Amino acid sequence: MSLLQVDDLVVRFRTHEGAVYAVNGVSFELEAGETLGLVGESGCGKSVTSLAIMRLLPKPAGRVEGGRVVFDGTELLSLKEEEMRDLRGKDIAMIFQDPMTSLNPVLTVEEQMVETVRAHRKVEREAARQRAVELLAMVGIPHPEDRLRSFPHQFSGGMRQRVMIAMALALQPKLLIADEPTTALDVTIQAQVLELLRDLTTTSGTAAILITHDLGVVAGMTQRINVMYAGYIVEAATTAELFAHPSHPYTVGLLHSIPRLDAAGEALIPIEGRPPDQREAPVGCPFAPRCAWRVEACWRENPSLVAITTAGTAGARVQHRIACHNAPTAEEAVAGHPLRSDFHAAPPPGSVVDELTTSEPLVDGEAVFPQDAPVTFDRQEGPSTPLYGAAGLPLPPEEDERR
Amino acid sequence: MSGSPSSIPVGSAAGAPSDGVAEPQPLVRVEELKVYFPITEGIIFERHIGDVQAVDGITFSLRRGETLGLVGESGCGKSTTGRAVVRLYKPTAGRIVFDGQDMATLQGEKLRRMRRRMQMIFQDPYASLNPRMTVGAIIREPLDVHGIGSGSERRERVGELLSTVGLNPEYGARYPHEFSGGQRQRIGVARALAVNPDLIVADEPISALDVSIQAQIINLLEQLQGQFGLTYLFIAHDLSVVRHISDRIAVMYLGRIVELASSRELNARPLHPYAVALLSAVPIPDPAIEATRRRIILTGDVPSPAAPPSGCRFHTRCWLRERLGNPERCSEEDPAMRELAPGHEVACHFAEQVDGSVEQRQAVGVRGGSTDAPAAQPATAPVAGG
User: What ipTM was estimated for this complex?
Assistant: First the structure.
């Protein structure tokens, strides 16, 4: 049985402007001792997923609206708050991006670490202090005895993150969730912290979920990766398989939009447009408006996550799942764009002009439409013709893609 | 590599920038630039008790039409350098010669007129645009300040600039909050282009953006460079981005340039122990390569620039010094920049020892150094999936 099983998790935020569809049915499993990467951009739901697992969603706005989270045989979402509190820190621990906001600035590291240990274990103060010294030494903080009396602000960024790791591992949790643990750090310090995390999780056999936007970081740290977009998992595979055969257009796009240190002067292929507004209920595939491979079905129907076969998975037990109606071929994934010359990304439904009449004649080449006439139009490549609406302003290109 | 058609052949035997004989006059020449920020004590009688030596004697030049990448970790002085070049900071010492004129001492009207030729793009597209001005007014402001064109010409120019950076020309009436991060950065770029500058200093222009948006801005910057023959000073902490966009790269550590070379040369053959460590720390999005790479883990943190170490500033964290049995020379003698290959300068007493070392090969990655075959690929097993 897996250590952690997330089934069809749905999280929404209630705001003044309506619901935000943060996580829309996410399912994954994590085996004991395994490191899983959750990769995606801001707003993709990767952090919200982890907060939901920890039951730390901001209240009252954030709500789990469906799904199950089973950790080590226990359903977490139905636990009482006291039971959950007992579990946090002891069985599941979390490291955040910014250690300065997750450490208490007015307490010394000693007070915070001793408190953590004694909250869960019936030990003497002195024993807890000894344990704190051991932990600080384990994460590579020089002179741990002295440093224990320091306040968080007296540590540098990298050292603070080490303190966070020491506290997270204080009670030997079975699962460690690290949310962008190195994003705030310089690259040489990032290397130190990642090395430490890898060593500690390997030696202690702690399972980990590593949440990051950096594909480079997960490449060297994880065994499996879930790529998230707009609250969905769009691609899930083992790390080696994902990088060898990226198959979802979003993953392919991400890999082509970051310059690689080891690749000389290749042109970057950006993902056009921007992440979707998650205040709208998702219709169709959330990536469709930005996708070069989209077909008509993408606008209507959100594809589900299904197993696929690639050169790497054929005949093997390697799992590779994607949510896509028209996945790029292996050659297209390498090229970064569709290769069939006759293929055009499907325009949004209802955007094809079949009948266009105006009550007014063209004035200086511009047509004037009556206010309530149903107007549909086709957007083509090339210079755009402004369409004037009631407000008198042309619609920005991304907004004419009305569905 | 930059996509600019006007880029200077990199890594060629163009001669050292320091001899300055054969080479055409660079657009900018920075000589022994120092920028210190005073540390004071006391409230009423402020006593000067020390200096943060943010930039401490750096020399480099910017050739016309090239992109020079300035890379280093936080606190290394790269942003201070960029700001001093456009005279947002007054240099403590040294010269900044822009097209024959020493900027470091210019004042008043003369400085203002020179400033028209250099513009800056900032990191945070949320903080660098005035939220109470319309986008049109923001882009138009440099034209107003420098008194360029009539009112209607300025209006027209705003629309033209917006389309140049890929935004709808009619967006001028909107406010910054109506735009996404990537779009705001485009507005910042449009503002920088308004006065037709020769030089653009881009300080971490993409670090605040989402990954999928970063490439849009990088491509835009490259396209504009080709279109307008711009010279870029591109400041970033991310070596893979800097490598992508730059013709030459200067690596900074604690207020000094420790290595300066063409982008290709630096990535294929880094010669300063810090540059090697920095390269090795950059994760490569390829698990097979990651499994075979060994990182150089630098111990400790960057020392305070208020009290930099004696001798070589990197000696307290240097892996090579340790390897060589901690020679005293490192902690006593400040290494000068030496040109070890044409156009490749390094400030390390023992840089020759780095060349060809295992660390150097490991750092550049298996596929690094596209020209020379990576024969010495370590025989580590590729990553076993799952």
Answer: 0.80
